[in-house]
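re the bet — no i am not wrong, look at it urself. input seq straight from the record:
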Amino acid sequence: MIDKKFIGQVMPAYSVDVEKGRLRFFAKATGQTDPVYWDEAVAQAAGYPGLPVPPTFLFCLEMETPDPAAIRDLLGLDYRTLLHGEQGFVYHRMAFAGDRLSFEQKIEDIYEKKGGALEFVVRLTRVTNQRGEHVADLRGSTVVRNKVEA
């Protein structure tokens, strides 16, 4: 069982630059039809300082942590038993191409269901921009499938 002493554990923060090319690629890959996501002139005409970050793109940047296995290693999890359980976003302000975003992950909760057959690790990631402004909160859960004796 995952030790609940890790609830509240904060992982080292890291920063990622928001690049125009990646935003355009993501917008195309996710079927964004609004040209504000790939045409800088359209974005600026709409009042934006640059290309806006499309919905859910922050999840891609969150995965750029220098140590993608840090939480898994900290908790002693076997990647062969893991599932991506849930992902949610709360946006506080927009982010744009050229921003430098900082990500700080924290283990928010650890709990079990089905008599320990499933364990859940919930992490909360706070995203701020280069001015220290709160951009978003990302909440994700990882499910651990355990073998439970009947």
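see?? The helical segments are 20-29, 40-45, 57-62, 70-75. told u. also Residues 20-29 form the longest helix (10 residues). so pay up
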